[in-house]
Amino acid sequence: MVSISARAALLLTCVAVAISPVLSQIIEFENNGLKYQSLTRKSVTIMCARLPVQLKEYELIQIALANGSDMYVTLKPEDFTFLRSDGHVIAAASADAVVTEIMDRGDHGDLVKLVTTYEKAIYGIPNMKLDNGYEKRRQAALGFGVNQKFKAAAAASAIALVQERIAPGKSTDGAVFFPHEGHGVPTGKLIVQNGSQTFEFNSE
């Protein structure tokens, strides 16, 4: 595992699609109060950071993917699992499950907390341009009704990582929601199974 400065790590991550590096070690860096990890497999780079917020029964992890390969890459919440240090495996919730939860139990406080935390994280990354992620989904959700529950659901749908097919040279982002099952913040590994490639990230 390699730790480097935030600026150097961000530069490396952002140019991954251009130079197609072959990296086998996790790159760690801090930015805007968050601890990030970045890993590249066959020119596909995934970056993650645990967000300092809980939403209902969920822990949130911010994900960004840059596709530096010459093929389309599909990414979805179901690709993510969390292997706790006690051996218990937690599957990420689907985007539909998260939106339904917010619709059923969301309120204005949830909306503000969710949007503020995510935007602070994603807009605080210098030199990171994401083509098909939160900003695009946010624009689509702006006219999603006036009822507070509908607005909260729209915010969740914009932030939650959804299944997406990412073209070569493109990128995306989103939050993955893990039910914490009353155990608080667990330690263990975040595992991403993307096609034949496995990405493993250590948890704080």
How would you describe this structure in keywords?
204 residues; alpha+beta; 36% strand; 29% helix; globular; disordered N terminus; four-stranded antiparallel β-sheet; single chain; six-stranded mixed β-sheet
Describe the structure.
The chain has one domain. Helices cover 29% and strands 36% of the residues. The protein has helices at residues 6-14, 16-19, 95-105, 108-123, 134-141, 148-159; strands spanning 2-3, 27-31, 34-41, 44-55, 58-67, 73-75, 80-84, 89-91, 164-166, 171-179, 188-194, 197-202. A hairpin with a 2-residue loop joins β2 (27-31) and β3. α4 (108-123) runs parallel beside α6. The radius of gyration is 16 Å and the shape is globular. It starts with a strand and ends with a strand. Residues 2-12 and 15-23 have low confidence and may be disordered.
